[in-house]
Structure formats: structure tokens, C-alpha cells
Amino acid sequence: MDPVQVREVDIDCPVTAAFDASVRALQRIPKLKVVREDPLTHEIDAKVGATFWSFGERLTVRLAGRGDTTKVTVRSQPRLSTTTVDYGKAVQNVELFARFLREGRTRGGAGT
């Protein structure tokens, strides 16, 4: 499995609300620390600490607003550029983020 994974999620809210929801979704991922938030450029950078299966990952979230809809793109890649196998950790990261983002939106999260 490719250690670099990318997912796109479309959510029905303006980009400012989607940005806040994305930060909250990231904060729910175990061992993750948000290291940079830029609400002006709609960019969030985070890192996940080492586990038994990996030396850690970098996650980036980029948002593009389209009126009342926002496209959220999340990318997970190993912190070590020489990593060729991550035992599904990148997939887990992007899928958890997408799930937490959707859950936050349906449970009356940002913008509601």
C-alpha cells in the first residue's frame, strides 16, 4: 500500500466553518498534534507521533471554498521520506480524518 494517501471530502458549509471543523477532526486523531493553522490561506499542518507500525506521519489539510460548499483535501505521508511501507497507517489517518469531519458536521458542528 502506498505510504502517501490523499482524500477529498466535500462538505456543505462555508470555508471558515469547514476550517474550524477540520481542526476539531484532526484533534480527535490519536497522537496527532496540529503544528500550523492558517485561516487566511485555509491550510492546516499536523504531525502524528511514532507508533509500533511507523516513525510518524505528516498530515496536511487544504480547503477550497465554493460558496456554501467546501472541498477539503487531506494528505498523509511518512515523516521519513525513505519509508516505502507504512502498514496502512496513512490510510488510517486520512480515513479517520474524513470520518471525524463528517461526524462533526452531522452532530451540529461548525456552521450550524
Describe the structure.
- With 112 residues, the protein is α+β, with helices and mostly antiparallel strands.
- The protein has one domain: START domain (Alpha-D-Glucose-1,6-Bisphosphate, Chain A, domain 4), CATH 3.30.530.
- It is 28% helix and 36% strand.
- A 5-stranded antiparallel beta sheet has the order 1-5-4-3-2, covered by helices on one side.
- Residues 108-112 have low confidence and may be disordered.
Descriptive labels:
112 residues; alpha+beta; Alpha-D-Glucose-1,6-Bisphosphate, Chain A, domain 4; five-stranded antiparallel beta sheet; 5 strands; 28% helix; 36% strand; elongated
Instruction: Write down the overall mean pLDDT.
Output: 88
Give the DSSP E fraction (strand runs of 2 or more residues): 35-45%
CATH superfamily: START domain
Q: What coarse outline follows from CA principal-axis ratios?
A: elongated
- Based on CA atoms alone, the radius of gyration comes out at 14 Å
CATH-level-2 architecture? 2-Layer Sandwich
| First-last Cα distance | 37 Å
Low-confidence stretches: 108-112
With strands numbered from the N-terminus, the spatial order across the biggest sheet is 1-5-4-3-2
Give the number of DSSP strands.
5
Tell me the number of structural domains.
1
Count of DSSP-assigned helices: 2
Helix content: 25-40%
Q: What is the string of helix and strand elements?
A: EHEEEEH
SS class: alpha+beta
CATH topology: Alpha-D-Glucose-1,6-Bisphosphate, Chain A, domain 4
Oligomer: single chain
For the biggest sheet, the summary is: 5 strands, antiparallel
